[in-house]
């Protein structure tokens, strides 16, 4: 097994690449974020939101997948309070959700958002966790695939055309990317 010389991330992550100096693509992608024109990105984002916002307020404007962690909680708050969206939040319930995660989900409901909490079949979940651990080195693999599939299924079912993801894991965690900082 090979590890990144900068962050110690192992090479067991699918599609993680290492440069000639032994630095992983997650670490090299950090530099790219420093060169992004964030004001320009915000304007582009507002244009996207305007396109999908339900003007009469009867429907959900977007889906926001949430984990119960601080990042997705903040993201939901900003979408609702700063951008005025009516989001439907989706939580793929881990079998071992923390008390803090539960409390955070309850806090979201208190700011006035609806939340669908999907609880997986524990027998299937455990089989997937074992596979994830033995084949991928990641026992939380079922949570990763759950939070990326369940929101899409719900968006299709309820005809909600916009999903707001909190991060791009392919970029953040090292999958090769052709993201252009200017687009």
Automatic annotation (TrEMBL):
Residues of the signal peptide: none
Protein name as catalogued: N-acetyl sugar amidotransferase
